[in-house]
Amino acid sequence: MEDILINWSPQETRVAVVENGAVQELHIERSLERGLVGNVYLGKVARVLPGMQSAFIDIGLERAAFLHVADLHVNGVSARSYHAEAGTATPIERLVFEGQALTVQVIKDPIGTKGARLSSQISIAGRMLVFLPQDEHIGVSQKIGSPEARELLRARMQVLIGRPEEGGGGGFILRTNAEDASDEELAADIAYLRKTWSRIREGASTKPPGSLLHQDLSLVERVLRDLVHERTASIRIDSRSQFEVLQGFGDLYMPAASAKLEHYSGERPIFDLNNVDAELVRALARRVDLKSGGYLIFDQTEAMTTIDVNTGGFVGARNFEDTIFKTNLEAAGAIARQLRLRNLGGIIIADFIDMVREEHKAAVLSEFRKQLSRDRTKITVGGFTQLGLLEMTRKRTRESLARILCEPCPTCEGRGQIKTARSVCYDIMREILREARQFSPKEFRIVAAANVVEMLLDEESQHLAGLSDFIGKPISLSAEPMNQTEHYDIVLL
């Protein structure tokens, strides 16, 4: 069974999924970093630009938003399709006019001086489905199984959505996690999405232009939509106001999930209950220790994530092969948990300790797949390569934990290492030689970190004196306590 802990504050929401006392997932959302993509507004056409085949739409933001004719839908049909059916390209000035009210959705956030980009075709994301209320098409993600499986899902959806005259209709796209969903889960998602669209339509007919009609769900609300399932025992939140908001949302859209809600009013911070904050610190570390004495090393790069398994201090009790096998078995479970905890996605390479016996490889692979089966994110495991590496992919659903909470080190600029003081000394000397060929100051002054200055005065003093004689100019030194080893300046006096 799982418990979900929600730590809410006005600036940040943190969610932990705890299974058998161990943290399995962490989700973090910051209020200042929430974008506008997915928000639905009742806009007002402020200006039509025939030369650009675009219009500026006032949606109540600081800058007017931008709607191109390609993103404009007329009577539920995209402008491109509308043009094709009409046999001629209808200009935007004949489709919209200044002062007209339009229901629009943000498809790209404002950047710099540019306003948000809009579309007039609305799409509402659910847990397993995306609802296209102005369309009648049923689409299925290409990542779902075989063509036969996709056709079967389409047929099931046709039955579930019903006929338009019966209150059905509208288009749907089945997301990848709909592949194994039951009819009851799909029906619940359909009902939620149609209720949301009904609320948007009601707002569009009663609210003034510039009003926000629908905002993509906050992390607290997405907990009920995306994280709760039959194995969820409880959902505890430490904010009374947010508990009431979440309860109202759940009662309206997801009664079964709402019944598991609890307000936590204990004296200890809610994340102290299962040492979540300590687990969060470990999830940002490069090294993860195993109970046996072995350890894992995680390295996340742009292209892939690599995981190295080491025996460390584990010496085993019988023989070397058994020691390796037991370390790899324990590592399989730890890696599966860390992938969820850190939310690592894309290509992942795990370098397990080399195993000679095929039955050991098969057992480790079986255990790894068993542990990964608890992950709600789509995963493909390719097995061991000829080099003994285990290849897999995990779908990227959001930024990894490290990308959300951390930034590249300003000292090493993300390299993970810095030059030695001696290397910096030689860089400085080469730079002075270059400057001396172009300029003729009275003196060169080196402003550098204390350890670099110390080395120039001690071990490298002879080389520095030789350089001064060679260029015929005095060289003085100044230690700057705030400078890091690689940071220096050469001042021409």
List its traits.
493 residues; alpha+beta; Nucleotidyltransferase, domain 5; Hypothetical Protein Ychn, Chain: A; 6-stranded antiparallel β-sheet; 6-stranded mixed β-sheet; 13 helices; 26 strands; 33% helix; globular
Task: Write structural notes for this entry.
With 493 residues, the protein is α+β, with helices and mostly antiparallel strands. Among the domains are: 2-34 and 218-276, eRF1 domain 2 (Nucleotidyltransferase, domain 5, 2-Layer Sandwich), CATH 3.30.420; 285-398; 421-492, Ribonuclease E, catalytic domain (Hypothetical Protein Ychn, Chain: A, 3-Layer(aba) Sandwich), CATH 3.40.1260. The protein has 13 helices and 26 strands. Strands 4, 5, 6, 9, 10 and 15 form a six-stranded antiparallel β-sheet that branches. The protein has a six-stranded mixed β-sheet with strand order 18-19-20-21-23-22, covered by helices on one side. A five-stranded mixed β-sheet has the order 3-2-1-16-17, with helices on both faces. Strand 4 (40-49) and strand 5 form a beta hairpin. Helix 8 runs parallel beside helix 9 and helix 11 (421-438) packs across helix 12 (450-457). Residues 80-87 have low confidence and may be disordered.
Detail the topology: elements first, then pairings:
Blueprint: E1 2-8, E2 12-19, E3 22-30, E4 40-49, E5 54-58, E6 65-68, E7 73-74, E8 77-78, H1 79-86, E9 101-108, E10 117-119, E11 124-125, E12 129-132, E13 138-140, H2 147-161, E14 171-174, H3 183-206, E15 211-214, H4 219-227, E16 232-237, H5 240-253, H6 255-258, E17 261-263, H7 276-283, E18 287-289, E19 295-300, E20 304-310, H8 320-342, E21 346-351, H9 358-372, E22 379-384, E23 390-394, H10 401-405, H11 421-438, E24 444-448, H12 450-457, H13 461-471, E25 475-479, E26 489-492
Parallel strand pairs: 1-16, 13-14, 16-17, 20-21, 24-25
Antiparallel strand pairs: 1-2, 2-3, 4-5, 4-9, 4-15, 5-6, 7-8, 9-10, 11-12, 12-14, 18-19, 19-20, 21-23, 22-23, 24-26
Helix pairs in contact: 2-3, 8-9, 11-12
